[in-house]
Amino acid sequence: MENMDGYQPPKIIFPGQRDIADAYRVAWDLLHADAPEQALEILAPALEAEPGNVGLRSLRAWAYFQRAQLDKARVELEFLVEADPTDVWARHTLGRLHERKSEYAAALPHLRLAAAMSGDPDHERAVVRVERMLEQLAARVN
Fold first, then answer.
1. Mean of per-residue pLDDT scores for the chain
2. Taken in order 109, 127, 112, 134, is the CA torsion positive or negative?
3. Which of 46, 66, 74, 79 is the most buried if burial means most Cβ atoms within 10 Å?
């Protein structure tokens, strides 16, 4: 699958893959190259071997989010937030997922927590953006 820059990552096959660290590194590289489908192929056998591996599940959430498979991404992100409520990336991404689904009221608590924990200006902008959407929706109702 080719991304928008014309880069086509090589097809990588791990027959009998056993090294979770290699799967993580390759999937990370593929996601950075905007190749979530290939990353999911690499992650599948690794997650079969270690279904509770938080690092691998984070990558799978990222891949699903990139592919706009939001229901699958939500399952992963909710698992990650439950496993570690201070996971800023999972919190922020879960908030963004709700925002993408126009579930602004559900997005806001996650975005606020991520912004408070990280102090990241992008996270703070996401909070303001969602608050404005909620205000606009409330104004339309009234």
1. 90
2. negative
3. 46
